[in-house]
Amino acid sequence: MSFTITQDGLSKLVNEWLARGKRVAGPSRVKRDCILYVPLQGPDQLLLEDFIRPANSLKEFLFPKHERLFGYRINGNGVELFELEPPKTEQLLIAARPCDAAALPILDQVFNWDCADEFYNRRRQLTTVVTLACSAHDDACFCTSVGLSPCAERGSDVMLVKLDRGKYEVRCHTEKGRSLMEGRLEPSDQVASEPLGPEKRFDPAEVREFVKHNFASAFWQSEGLTCLGCGACAYTCPTCHCFDIIDEGNANEGARVRNWDSCQFSMFTQHASGHNPRENQPARQRQRISHKFDIYPEKFGEILCTGCGNCTRNCPVGIGALSVLTEIGHGEHL
Amino acid sequence: MNTANPLPQACATARVIEALAHTHLYDCYQCGKCTAGCPMAAQMDIAPNRLIRLLQLGRGREALDAQSIWQCVSCQTCATRCPKSVNCAGIMDALRQLSMEEGRVSPAQRRVMLFQKAFLDNIRRNGRLHELELIVQFKLAGFMHDRRFSLLFKDATLAPKLNKRKKLHLRGKKVRDRAVLRRIFARSMDHS
Amino acid sequence: MNIGYYPGCALHGSSDDYEESLRACLRALDVQLQEIDEWICCGATAAHALNQKLSTALPARNLALAERGGFGEMLAPCPMCSMQLIKAQKALAGNEGLRREMSGIVELEVRGTTRVLNLIQVFEQVGLDRLKAALKSPLKSLSAACYYGCLLTRPPDVVEFDDCEQPRSMEAFLTALGAKTVDWSYRTECCGGGMTLASEETVLDLSHKILSNAAAHGANCLVVACPMCHVNLDMKQPDIERRYGVRHGLVIYYLSDVVGMALGLPESALGINRHFVGKA
Amino acid sequence: MNEAGQFEPKIVAYVCNWCTYLGADLAGTTRLEYPPNVRIIRLPCTGRIDFNLIVKAFEIGADAVLVSGCHPGDCHYTAGNYHARRRWILFRELLEALGFEMERIHFTWISAAEGRKWQQVVTEITEQTRKLGPYKNLYADTGNGSLPIPEAAPAVDQPAGSEGSLRQRCHQLLADGTVKVVIGYGTGGPVCVTKPADVGRLVWNNQCSSNLTTYLKRQEVRKLGRAAIVVKVCDERALVVLEKESQLDRKDLHVMGMACNGMGQPKCATCDVRVPRFADEVIGEVASVPLAGPPNAAPRGGAALEVLLAKSPAERMACWAREFERCVKCYACRQVCPLCYCERCIVEKNRPTVIDPSPTVKGNFAWHITRAFHLAGRCIGCDECTRACPAGIDLRLLNLSLAKAAEEHFGYRAGINRDVEPLIGAYSLQDKENFIR
Amino acid sequence: MSRIGVFICWCGENIARTVDVDALAQEVSKFPGVRCAMNYKYVCSDPGQALVREKIAAEKLDAVVIASCSPHMHLKTFRRAAQLAGLNPYKVEMANIREHCSWVHHDRAKATAKAASLIRLSVEKARLDHELQPIRVPVTRRALVIGGGVAGIQAALDIADAGYEVVMVEREPSIGGKMAGLSETFPTLDCSQCILTPRMVEVGQHPRIKLYSYSEVERVEGYIGNFTITIRQKARYVDISKCTGCGDCWSVCPLKRNKSEFDYGMGVRASIYVPFPQAVPARPVIDAKTCAKIIRNGCGLCEKKCKAGAINFQDTDKLVEEKVGAVVVATGYKLYDIGEKQDKASLAGYGEYGYGQYKDVIDSLQFERLLSASGPTNGVLKRPSDGAEPKNVVFISCVGSRDNAKGLPYCSKICCMYTAKHAMLYKHKVHDGQAHVFYMDIRAGGKGYEEFVRRAIEQDGAKYYRGRVSKITQEDGKLVVRGADTLAGVPITVEADLVVLAAAMRPADGVAELAQKLNVGYDEFGFLLESHPKLRPVETNAAGVFVCGACQAPKDIPESVAQASAAASKVAVTFAADELMREPEIAGINEQTCVACYACLRACPYHAIEQAEVRTPRGVFVKHTARVNPGLCMGCGTCVAVCPSKSADLEGFTEQQIYAMVESLV
Hints:
A: eight-stranded mixed beta sheet; 12 helices; D: about 425 residues; alpha/beta; Fumarate Reductase Iron-sulfur Protein, Chain B, domain 2; five-stranded mixed beta sheet
């Protein structure tokens, strides 16, 4: 016994949310070969078939690239602070990929670790995630190597699995998911076949082991050499969550803001003295891999990566994490 | 303050002359080099630099009445050597044209104008110059003007010498399409 | 080498000896002249004296005819004609509005692309060394004063030929052909030009000065390249003698006469016998 | 708004201290009244006024900006205004391409004796701007404009055997020690081969479209010692610009030029020079393609630029606002560009904050204006920035509009001629402009 | 938080009439960083300045903003006042609320609001002012004088007499310049050599003047106070230390028929020669172009004859370096070449006067040589063609000058005077001779000049015709000069035995190249550009480089000498302090972020930026960088605008200040 929904059912859902002034975001073809999660103006913009995954991640809708924390006003020689109006629009993230949805619980942990980030949590409560199981993968995907699969339920309220043209099997995992799908489903006996994911590319435990003992090894020197130090991998990664806080404003008023940051930038660990513990790109590559496969697991017991492959696809010089990880897997360097 | 021309209001003649000769006669600083180099200056009543000075002062009428504009042989020396590149030769041409059009040609120099007019009539009719016809027409026009018989038959002795050297051509080769000449002359007469 | 040929009224009138001379001389140097069909008078002094627009229209008509005939270059042996033609050609080439207006007046489309040459420039195109090669009888007897007249080199910014104050292009030819040239001061002084009939005493006065200066510097003949100068210096020598009591007795050769003689052509073929002042 | 409900425009004027400031003083001493909307900022010379100041003025809400200084020839420092003139000729083209309302930007020469002209200029600008109204749609996404998508050229495979001979040559170079490292193309992306045995990792196929010269600025690669670098025709022009800007010395670089049949990128559609000209050695020949125009002109904008420039300013601004909305400021466009070699980029400096580091619309516009103008007269059209941008923004168009301007105004093309002086930082007395009053 | 004091001036009622100063003071006191704000009737007056000084001490202010008139009026005044109160003078800013506000806006509310906004700008700037100290540049108290004419001699002597060492570089074998070749000088007709030779000897013997004759300036590096001059000593083939000047060599030299440059071709000289008897140094030089020994290893008589063994045919050019603190350019003039060939495309020659074709048509300097007692004709006037005494001499002025068609529209200023002098001297030498002068206007504005010209006309009977000459022709031995007289309006023909052309004055050859070496501007005719025609006539826009004499513009001897002394005084001013003080508002480059692309180096109009290297204290090379030379930088800021990484910044107008000002306008 399974429940299904048709494509126009989904369109009706999107229209209803939009009509109620809520925000709906999903994969959309922005340009010929550029698919991104963007807020949708209408269901026609929603893309459901013939694409692997968008180039960005859901992170933007929960932990936005730029957020104003609080405002200040300068009068005379004093400063007056004022709170900013918190976000309150509900948002529906529809047709998200499982590797994106799986990242949300990971972010939940880090944003509620030593200090509960109210901005993040408020958005998290307002969010409902409807994932769409992958029907295909390319050689950048490696979700199976990090314990996920093309139809992993982690982090999703509702999962859609494609049956045939225009019909999807619906699996509700959470209360929120069920209330969302209330009255939209028809029972049917069709059960979607489990799509098979990419085969395993490396063993994360092996990587963790390698990283622990090869801090100073020449491996990083050769692997990280061609990295140019841009932020494309970090900013499109569903799990990277580093940020930088600065004040922005003019002579009279301004705000304290939080922007994304990336460990790959040369200024990331620049000390006021001018010294930089990670002064070259291989060191930063090493930091990225070890934070995801060693430091984060040690603290939260999970790998800080959902194997979506965005870093490899978006890297201008084609490194991303996968090539390094597979290289470690080959083991000649042990 | 408005920027009216501080010099005395340039008279109409000066402006017309400048247009015809495509030159700026106010550039002239009266250095006298045109008069110095002019082969005819000694016989002239008003020397070239004086003519330009009269135009600068707005006294165009006296310039048009001058005999000197008809004594000028158009040898271009003045325009070639002028330090201020004023087209003095062009000014003389323009003065002659205006003087003829306003009928102010000085009687003493009328013969030159009559010769030029006869020359133009000749080529308007034939397209190319017929020397014999020109001589006859000029002699008659000259005689009508000053009734002097001496000039009428002055070069009579020349004719046989020319004939001996086969230089006397009774009938020159005419241009086939002569009507176009009349139309060209007509179109050139109106001052557009 | 063949180029367009604009004879001008003088060369078909009383100065046809000049045409005879230059045709003979150029034929000897195998330069073919193709006369411009239906050419008309360039207006000479009369046009630019009495009507500026006409003084541009008449040459414009001739330039249009040359362009229609497909002539890139055109010989105009008379400096008055060549100056008027070049002046019109430069004005037309530089002014779109003038081109339209003149094309209307002369009823032919004119672009001002034809290059007008004087006789010396044609000889320069033939080249000194070709002349030297074809030299048959060097002109040892001549002590020539080269007389350019006023319009061959003036106005300099229009004509742009040789130097307007100290021209030496004819001397180059004459020395190459074995003649002796005289260094005198009246090379570019005016001979009276078109005033031959209109005001004879002007011509006599100016020509007398020229002939005296040439004689004073030991010249036994003058070489000219202009029909009007030739008339004033040659035909009027008897009148000068009557008026000033000086018999100059200087032979006035055309440049093509001396070049022809150097090439060995007989005097009769060059029309030298038709000059007024013969060899003493 | 003033009490009468009439709009009072805010006008920022950058003026030079020796001429226009004294001109304004003279307007004062001769009591020439003019509206009080202008705010004068005194600078030593127009040469000192850089383009970021104009952008910053609009950012803080100016409705019009005036830049004024000495007439050419009068500059107290002999050449400041000539530098400024050349800078504005190019910068106006960039602002035009971005859809700024050009009638809000004014350039004038006002001498110390032209008090009256200062009064007229300020009065005219105030009235004109009052009619235009406040600059509301600065950076506003007003319409649904979308930038045209560049058409790629068909992917063609490379001359046969060149991959083999490349490997063989590199093996030889590494073996006899002429070079310590070969920067070449690998299967996934660029590779740095240091050992002769690894030359097998080098490939040459129609995926090698990235510009490897960007590695010449990396400290890590420089430390490896003398390098051999694989370049295509569009890449090698960067070497000319870098050499002119004293960033590299051809002696300690071995350039291996690859004859290229095109990599299927938009730039390949208009590329007519397939064989590198400045390389130390060239591998592979190509059927000689007739030289249409001057060698390998920066793709003259192609259709995309014409379509952009054909739009109205408001539409253009809307297009760019929509595009920049997606920019996350990952700076991939900066890192892949061989000519962006500053260790500390201007955007990483905050005293003063010339460019807002936040990925807001204001911060993104300021960043992309600065990046594009820093490449004025330098960009060689290798299109790496567009290829690397994860948000799919067609950054090429900004550089192409400046490349077109450099060619039209100064007949200058980056990276073609080795002994031509760089465009920015030099000036000519004959620079033509028709917009400075 | 900074403690800024704002002083709003009423300027009597120039400001107070339209700006509500009290409300303004209230509003300003609330600006961030403002410690106190007050207004006063005349802040620039003594009591006003006293108020400022007192407030600085009382409120311990660290910056001051004066809201009053234009900084061009009183910035220096208030900076001095602040300095007296112990505040660094560069922490003082001015807000121009008079010329830019109260005088031009009559609406009281708007004017007050604008004044507040202008003050806010200055407060933002003052808050970020740095404490600057004037730049001290060491001064080498030696001066270089280029050119040994009367101007160079006067400048060198003045500077040397002021106690400083002078290096004089003269291109010709001897100093003296054009004046040495003149006969007598107007208006006093005193003999040129008699008044010049003593000064030349003084230069030759002055302990503090080092003379490089027959030498040229090869290269100039450095900046005011620290120039390094490379001088090329041209090969003289005579060792002037050994030579006693006895004259045996030039008397024995067989090649006597070379044209003498000193006599402008009027006389001849041997291949080894001293230009003129009173030469300083009175030592010969061998003309390598004509000496048989040098050309084809023949002759060599002079070497055999020389008892002092001073002749050395293997002599070569030598390069010498001199360190100087200031440069005086006194390269003088040359006459316009009247013949056909011109050295500049924009000039045309005078074919119509037959100069170069007729021997008896000469220019004014050649006539001077004929008049001069030490000239080729020993002062007896003989015309060059046949040596006869000319009975009729025609002088033509404005040959080349005031002639747009020939390319020199300017007036050469001295020809009217020396033409009158020529007419007078000619009369004194040839009593029955007749001078004819063709002139356009007589320019005789100096002291006693007009009377001098009238004397030439009234007493010495020179005939003056007001008109140019069109042509000179040669007719049976006589030069027929065809001129005109526009006063009578008639052509004038004069038969002359000799014609003297008063040619135009042009700067000496090679001045353009020298100007480029010194980074000094020059105009379209090649005359050097003074810093300001009226206020700074002898200075140039290159600090430490001064000009005097005819190289700057046509001028006569009195003016050249006056300018020479002016230049000398400017040099003395430069050397007055043992260190040069320069405004500290100059550029500086942050060598950490500079990537050495050198866009600034190419853009700097003063070549004040050079390539440099950053090294660790132990000398290990770190990186290349650009570096500003504080001595040369004039503070224009062009480098700041072209620097992509914003490493360059300009003190007094730092980036932080400008952006803070703009952002305060929000």
